[in-house]
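Researcher: I'd like a structural prediction for the single chain below. Treat it as a standalone chain; there are no partners to consider.
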Amino acid sequence: MALVSARNVEKTYEVGEVEVHAIQGADFTIDPASFVSFVGPSGSGKSTLLNMIGCLDHPSAGTLSVAGTDVSGLDRKAAAQFRGQHIGFIFQDFNLIPVLTVAENVEYPLLLVQNWPVAKRRQRVSEMLEAVDITAQADKYPHQLSGGQKQRVAVARALATNARLILADEPTANLDHQTAYRIINLMKRMRDEFETTFIFSTHDPKIMEAAEVIFTLEDGRVAREGGSNA
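Model: Treating it as a single chain, here is the predicted structure.
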């Protein structure tokens, strides 16, 4: 069964007296354990689509199903609960909490969102830091890390809650060429190990090259589907 399924999804915003059709009649499915990119020029609807899949926004019309749940009409509380159980996020500016250590940043969603007991949290944090090869930096703060190390922490944090789906908005934008390749390979390894689906919104040709499925957006429409292994 598809992990994500969109049927005639539309998103319309009102800007003053003007209607902006950000997404128009999107139809697509994404399978479990996929490595997927939404690509297209700025303003094509990539981030809007990612936000709706992540339950940060609602479709104006159509049906959007994630992990077997129709998320189209979830209220704020239900959407937050659903995100905490099923979805992780990786951002281009890392979004680490500066006053927390690396280990505490990874632990944070386990405490805030899922309220795991202490022993279980610490065991999971240890496992995730080891998985992304950042154990030696566990007690450091974000300002003491390189960009690549920060993104490794972000990957560990996103996966810590056993999320089935990771949404990544331009995750390599602030990384140099070689570091970006290392992070992409890390995310693919995490996908293979944990069978987690990664969905990217990106302009980065390195991610497009790595993606197994590519959805190209033009003027809010999913124009075509392809990928390196398609």
